[in-house]
Amino acid sequence: MARTTPVKNAWRAIAWLTALTVGLTVLIGAGSIFGEDSTNGAASWAPKLALDLQGGTQIVLAPQLESGQTVSGEQLAQAVSIIRDRVDASGVSESEITTQGDRNVVVSLPGTPDDETLARIQASAKLEFRPVLYTEVAGTATAEETPDPAATDSPEGEAATPEPTLATTPTAAPTDASDLNWITEALFDKYSNFDCSSLDNFSVAPADEALITCEADGSFKYILGPVEVEGSTITDASSGLVSNSQGISNGQWGVFPTFNAEGTTAVADMTTRLFGFDDTDPRNRFAIVLDGRVISAPTTQGIITGGNPQISGNFTQESAEILADQLKFGALPIGFEVQSREDISATLGTAQLNSGLIAGLIGLLLVVIYSLFQYRLLGLVTVASLIVAGALTYLVIAYLSWRHGYRLSLAGVAGLIVAIGFTADSFIVYFERIRDELRDGRSLTGAVEAGWKRALRTIFAAKAVNLLSAVVLFVLAVGNVRGFALTLGITTVIDVLVVVLFTHPMLQLLSTTRFFSSGHPLSGLDPNALGAVYRGRAQFRTPVAAKNKSGASREAARRQTIAERKAAELAGSARDSSSDGKDS
Amino acid sequence: MASFSKFGNDLYTGDVSINFIGRRKVWYALAAVLLAVSIIVPALRGGYVFGIEFTGGSQFQIDSVEALTDPEASIEAQNLATDTVVDVVGDAEPKVTVIGTSSLRVQTEQLETDESNEVRDALAGAFDVDTDLVASSFVGPSWGADITGSALRALLVFIVLAAIMMAIYFRTWKMSIAAMIALLHDIVITAGVYGIFGFEITPSAVIGFLTILGFSLYDTVVVFDKIRENTSEDGSESRRTFAESVNLAVNQTLVRSINTGVVAALPVAAILFIGAYVLGAGTLRDIALALFIGIVVGTYSTIFIAAPLYAQFRQNEPEILSRTKRLTAARAADKGDK
């Protein structure tokens, strides 16, 4: 084995690690200088702190209730859970969501939330698909003048000629949702007098009745049939650029819901019926209604059987993402409005954080002392590795804090301090393996390589368990637990990176130095002190009295002075020098 | 150091061997006692004490408080509010937050109506405001049933996946079972400490708890990997019985176990010390306590519970049994010769 190969590998690994560290540093540095305009704001060298350490904003949401309507505890609990999902979807910020009294929901968020975050939280996001019965440009009195091609074929003749009595019941019971008998005289009169600017308040007609509403931007006015597809049948939703039938993107953002079996059937039934209308008839169109407003009312160009329609409208990338999240987590059982929005202080404050950090430093110092005591100068490799791991962790946290809204809570700080133990264990496992190989009589370079192979397997297996717990908790759990899982995952990955790209290369390099390879007593890898006497399976050499199984003499051997033992071992090591490489 | 590394050498060669496997009945008995105490004592004390994050509680909002504008005044006000509440309700652990520039929010455990009125009056007195400006209400749990449910589900999935992963990696499900029993042992004892001392279970404590699960399994995997290595090297003509191989592996990794245990426990002990003695009760103490106990118990259970259980689970497999019998017979004959 050429001695240069491990050395080359070692330098290569260290180069990778340096590249990674420099890359992260440059990225965050650039973010802090040029990041002002990005959606995430400028990067900061100090990780953002969570609610418990830094405080944030408290938003009190009150339900929007009609008179006489009440909120049940169940509805409130459901609302809390949905709002939490929505907040979590925007990053790992460890927000706190509770109920207050018997009707309000209190959302505490770290930092100062922008309007988008507020919109994300409070919108009910009740989505419905309703067939269009009648439409015209808002603000015009007569249907004939509408420029909308879909509405040119005026259905006025069918829509019951207005009579002075304004009947509230249809002339015949409607047979399906597109039946124009839904439009009673009273309804049409209301429609004629309906002003889109009055559509400020959230109010949705019961699902089994016709609805008068407008396009979200107020440009069109509609009479819609009863609900045909409920938003609650949506199981998942994503957002992206809308593409046409040739798969070419038209540059518009859209939302792509996935329906469950019930929803798929309902969509198919609805589109089958609507497709039967001529595409100049408004009844060919269906309206996608969100919180009582039409976000788009496309013409039916085919029968949708797959349960994957596209919703396009006036979306930006951000609003498409928000709607997709809202659809995914379901509509709130009731609409909410912001009652108050105030800054709140930290509950723990900097005293706890500082004490935590001081405790961490003391702990680290104790670990350093213990490592040096146990492993002599090799302990310095542990300390250096911990520093490298600490620096990398810091960079990754700063990066996540900037790009993904990660915030460090006191529990997170404690988790990081505990990670010192997990990380140091990788080194301990490795060093003990090297010592074992030295005891087997290998040369130091051989012991480093052989010990590494065995240690790496153990480290990978054990870290895989940690990573598994981090991933499972992150994917399945909600709230604070996700933040914890992320911290655990980060430290585990960094730990493996450091041991592979730093600790092992350092030992490869150190093992070629005279200080370590000669087994200097202070190196922590002195083969004599490690009693390199074991020559293979059950094949003992007996240089010292220690082989005598009597307890007393063993005790005596243990109490030999270092000089005595050295002398005894030196005598043995001469014979032992050719044993390098046995027992692979 | 010399004596410790000599100790390590002797453990490695087998010169010094602590009989972890052979004396398993002692460890099992000890575990049984600890488990019983961990379950019975909290039960006698009337169950666990959960923080208001789990149960909800009472909330007081004091409006029109003067001089909350600078951070120091805020901290003073927070301390004053804490002391005021503790004076009225001794065992309350109030969470005080400054809202905006002139309000304080105090959250405590659920109080009885008259206690609540007393606290209200006391707070009004302490901050020199009219009682009408102190609004009391009920605050719901921020860590509600849905979070607990999802965390428990995640935990179960993790444990099942970890068991499958270990079974595949070690190629024997018996190691998985032994590791899981040791894990259960750690969980019950760590939880028991909270119940025994009546410490409040907060979200921080739960998170500390989850860390312990990871640590316990992690430690077990490291030691089991050495056991796997040793026992797979044993041929049918090995001079050690299966149990002896397992025992040797535990002894050979004992120095690692001690070093890891110490290194992991030191920073936590520092947090625990500072958290409990300098700051008094709080998040840091809650987390550090769970972690400290968990690390000690987790390291201990690998050696004293998981490894002996594994040896026991496999001792009746035909190959292992015949090897043990052959070796026992050979050793008896050896003795007879001498």
Note the main attributes of this structure.
heterodimer, A: 584 residues, alpha+beta, six-stranded antiparallel beta sheet, four-stranded antiparallel beta sheet, 15% strand, elongated, disordered C terminus, B: 338 residues, two-stranded parallel sheet, 12 helices
Number of helices of chain A: 15
Main pleated-sheet profile of chain B: 4 strands, antiparallel
- The portion of residues forming beta strands of chain A comes to 5-15%
How does the helix and strand content of chain B classify structurally?
alpha+beta
**What is the global morphology of chain A?**
elongated
> Which residue ranges of chain B are poorly predicted, with pLDDT under 50 across at least 5 consecutive positions?
none
Q: Mean pLDDT across all residues of chain A, rounded?
A: 75
Integer-rounded radius of gyration of chain B: 27 Å
By DSSP, the count of extended strands of chain B is 6
How many separate helices of chain B? 12
Question: Secondary-structure element order of chain B, as H and E?
Answer: HHEHEHEEHEHHEHHHHH
**Biggest interchain interface, per-side counts:** A-B, 94 and 97 residues
Question: How many individual β-strands of chain A?
Answer: 13
Order of helices and strands of chain A: HHEHEEHEHEEEEEHEEEHEHHHHHHHH
The major beta sheet of chain A can be summarized as:
6 strands, antiparallel
